[in-house]
Design a protein that fits this description.
The chain is built from eleven helices and seven strands. By secondary structure, it is of the alpha+beta class.
Length: 306
């Protein structure tokens, strides 16, 4: 009886872990014959779940379903990449990794330490970067060719905004990501009233490694900015500091400036055309992306089992 009782006790104690293992082994979805397990899904959703910081079942379910939708699209886009014979080379991934370290002013050991803290290996990050670059390239081809901005639209935008279209050559971006316990709103008011400089605020309140360098991330590489950052910076006057916004869950401010100083010259229509085209293309690209992703899903065999 004692042995039987001990066995039952062990089974009861192991039930939670056994159930968890069974849950992770379950299939979340099958996309054109490719399986996405619950383990894959939970791992992909880890960062967003951590950022949300909520155990509310509705919040968790929404994040999981949003992540699953993104994973399904990744599979479909990867299949499109094969059809279009689009590939990302290891050297391109290396260059992107170097850019990330440069932008964050991190040495390779420091970078690896940050990844380890977040439970991510270089190998996993390389796969993520390759997937993101592949998505961007495929969507650039398929969505880009469907997105047209006319000269008339560019001219109209220029006439309506020409008093705010400054020459962007040589501009740097300073980034202040506040420590969670920092009095961000109070500091923002001091910055607005010029009671404190951006460099002083970074040195005292930023969590970034470049805080003692005024948060300077170097020259703005406009063609490499994602749509959110491109739109934000394009609206800013050189020499200005943004309002507080959230970036990866942290309160953030950005300073757009020229380290050499001098006057900020307004652009001509010809100079401003590439920037205006990018600005006008973004909302159109979003609509085209929705159309394109819907078409891919309609053509696919998708079995969601959540």
């Amino acid at each position: 009886m004692k042995k039987c009782g001990l066995f039952l006790l062990l089974v009861v104690l192991c039930l939670p872990s056994l159930c968890f293992a069974v849950q992770l082994g379950k299939i979340a979805a099958v996309v054109n014959g490719k399986v996405i397990t619950m383990f894959d899904l939970q791992r992909a959703a880890t960062m967003e779940l951590r950022k949300a910081g909520s155990k509310d079942p509705k919040v968790v379910d929404a994040i999981m379903r949003r992540t699953l939708d993104s994973m399904i699209l990744d599979i479909l886009v990867a299949e499109e990449a094969k059809r279009l014979k689009i590939k990302i080379s290891p050297s391109e991934v290396d260059a992107r990794l170097a850019d990330i370290m440069k932008q964050n002013r991190l040495t390779k050991p420091q970078f690896e330490a940050v990844l380890a803290r977040d439970g991510l290996s270089i190998k996993e990050l390389r796969k993520n970067i390759e997937r993101q670059m592949l998505n961007q390239r495929v969507l650039g081809v398929e969505v880009g060719r469907r997105t047209v901005v006319t000269p008339e639209e560019v001219k109209k935008y220029y006439e309506e905004h020409k008093d705010t279209l400054y020459n962007r050559k040589g501009l740097h971006m300073g980034v202040l990501i506040y420590h969670p316990k920092a009095p961000a709103e109070s500091v923002a008011r001091q910055l607005k009233n010029k009671e404190i400089t951006f460099a002083e605020a970074c040195a005292k309140y930023s969590v970034l490694n470049n805080r003692n360098k005024g948060g300077d991330t170097g020259p703005v590489e406009w063609d490499k900015l994602n749509s959110e950052w491109s739109e934000r910076l394009s609206r800013m006057r050189p020499g200005s500091i943004s309002d507080i916004f959230l970036s990866r869950g942290f309160k953030t401010q950005v300073y757009l400036f020229n380290p050499k100083g001098g006057e900020y010259r307004l652009m001509t229509l010809k100079e401003a055309t590439p920037m205006i085209t990018d600005i006008l293309r973004q909302p159109k690209s979003k609509d085209r992306f929705e159309d394109y992703s819907s078409q891919l899903k309609k053509k696919a065999v998708i079995d969601i089992r959540l």
